[in-house]
Design a protein that fits this description.
This protein is α+β, with helices and mostly antiparallel strands and 136 residues long. The chain has 5 helices and 4 strands, in the order H-H-H-E-E-E-H-E-H.
Length: 136
């Protein structure tokens, strides 16, 4: 998991957010043991080169769930080899095993590689995203 965090830090150019303040081992072990959190790592010779994290969201209106891809990244020198697609396909298998009815992800406007990947795999919806600050 720490290697995957390092990959995300490099891919998203956010080492402060992903690398410098990593949680404790017990926090990560607890998170990884929870049924709603999914982490998939792609490795090459034992080194993590990409992967994704996702959350299963249980619905209230029906007995079903949906899976949200939170982060997906592959190191630059391993891109265009089908790694991201393979990670998503594995997640879709997991979703089916859990009885989820959909896997969804959001992409930033202008992130053409992500948009192209997701367009290849699913239907695009135009939505607005709002961040609501939490007062502390």
């Amino acid at each position: 998991m720490r290697q995957l965090l390092d990959v995300f830090g490099e891919v998203f150019e956010d080492s402060e957010g992903y690398c410098e303040k990593q949680p404790t081992d017990s926090y990560l072990q607890n998170l990884l043991s929870q049924g709603h959190f999914i982490a998939i790592a792609a490795t090459h010779f034992g080194k993590v080169i990409g992967g994704l994290t996702a959350y299963e969201l249980q619905k209230f209106e029906q007995e079903r769930s949906e899976i949200y891809i939170y982060d997906l990244g592959v190191l630059s020198h391993h891109r265009r080899q089908g790694i991201a697609t393979a990670c998503i396909e594995k997640l879709v298998e997991i979703a089916a095993e859990r009885g989820a009815y959909v896997v969804f992800v959001q992409a930033d406007q202008g992130d053409e590689p992500a948009i192209a990947l997701y367009s290849k795999l699913g239907a695009k919806e135009e939505v607005l995203h709002f961040d609501i600050a939490v007062r502390q």
